[in-house]
Input
Amino acid sequence: MTGTPILKWGLGLSAAVAGVVALAVVRFQQPLGPLLRPDFLAEEHGQGPQTYCYQGVRTHDADRPVAQCFTVEDGKFTRVFPWDDASLTVRSGLVIPGLWDGHGHLLQYGEFLHSVDLFGASSFDEVRSRLRDYIRTHPDAGTRQEWIRGVGWDQNIYGRMPTAADIEEDEVLRGKFFMLDRIDVHCNWVSQAVLDLLPGEVPDVPGGEVVRKPGMGVFCDNAMDMIVNMFPKPDNERKRSFVATAMSKLNEVGLVGMHDAGASPETLRLYADMAHTDDWTVRVYSMLECPQRNTFCPTDAANVTQESDMFTVKSVKLFADGALGSWGSAMLEPYSDRPDTSGSLLVNASTLTELAKSWASFGYQVNIHAIGDLANRLAVDALEEALRTVCPGQEDLSECQARRRFRIEHSQIIHEDDQKRIHAIGIIPSIQPTHATSDMAYAELRLGPERTRREAYRMRSLLEVNPILGSDFPVEPPNPFQGIYAAVTRKSPHTGYGAGGSTDGWHTDEALDLDDALLGFTRGPAFGAFMEGKAGLIKEGAFADWVVLDEPLEDLVDLEHLRDFPVRETWVAGRRVYERPSDSDSEVDL
Ligand SMILES: *[C@@H]1O[C@H](CO)[C@@H](O)[C@H](O)[C@H]1NC(C)=O
Ligand SMILES: *[C@@H]1O[C@H](CO)[C@@H](O)[C@H](O)[C@H]1NC(C)=O
Ligand SMILES: [Zn+2]
Output
């Protein structure tokens, strides 16, 4: 399903035409300067058809890969065409289809934006200092009713697991309620006040870990439940503000849509209420997560199932294992740096298969979180069985899969045999390029060189099966250009370096080229959400979603520029939802 030729930007205006464009611009610029920076409401709200021309439009439509102009009506593109009429003003900027993040967490991202950012903190002292800063600006936070949240700590950096005592030793922090997520959100670090809510003797939890050394305070995977169950949930009003904040931040980096990788029925009802409002500026394709993780909850599903242009629920998220960083992902062989363990499954094989079959029969797309090679094997087993169940007697499961589009979320470490099965069936891998470049610091330690080389963080070798790219925000920043950078260079967009500070990318044989990376943030998510032909491209009948850039992506002389790539404007359904402030560009420079 790949292979559509993507041509270069539509900059090929001939010199003669370019002269006319320049004239046309000059003509309109004097009395009607604002035409280049449209601020009037009629345009924003799309009363009647509106036509926009830019220096170049990259469409991702094989029939017309480049254009300069399009017409929008009722939130859809109604015409895409070359600039052929000198009376049409050409706006400065280059257009690409609106970008999608194929795996993120909307509400959690909003919550993250309202909490303490611990990413990159280099020591416990720095963590404490950031927590103190938060308390300075939020003096009422940290009570039994409103815990202070944070995310981004990483014991790999500090050299040991954190403890409640590490918080307690600071007198500003002492006694307050903290719940801080590990960088991969698979562990919680809590303060003594939270520990005091637990029963005296904290039991071990199957599929999880209560970390007891060097002291109490960290709870991983299934063990997080006992903390999360005590956490005072934010009310709906607060959640709405989380979502609105998240959406405007997503628009800033060129995102027009996202796949929300696991939301409770309650959250989905909140989304459904918000989806009609002006605050809802990102298209959301949500995966249902049952109130009890890894169960079959058809009544809840029936209550939240829906499909509209702005919000869709018709898929479920299941979880096979935890994360690599905390040795939680389920491996076929023990970890190279901890031979005593091979991680743990969150469900056993038979339960996972039964769940996949039940959800498939219910009519849902089945999306399984799988990181380790054992988890990925069981995910393929489960999805294969589910396909057999819904397409009985069908020899070639790939036909069935082309309709049902089951996915593996993360698809990080996959045994070669299972990579073959994924190709044969066409199971869709949902991949986060920045996970590869953030994990490269320790992945090889966990996996050893051989497993890393054969199994880990595939991208190029999965190109044929419609990979969906995303960021897993708030685990990583949502900026899709950073994801593209990571996919193309296999270097960290945060540092600009490969593993261990190398100037070479990490296992670049799995790097994507720029076109394929961009398709991973457009066509991939569209197909994975049953929206091909509607999302991720600029074509008659498609959603009128686009992003205006200052410069063409593929003429980038320096890929480093992608790490901080400027977005000028983002449009969703023909409405401008983001405009870079104090943008003084108003001249066309052809
Ligand atoms: C879904 O459940 C909510 C709350 O339980 C209820 O108010 C609502 O009417 C239900 N909606 C449908 C479509 O069943
Ligand atoms: C799998 O887990 C389920 C639910 O916990 C349990 O009932 C079942 O016996 C387990 N099956 C196997 C084969 O261990
Ligand atoms: Zn996720």
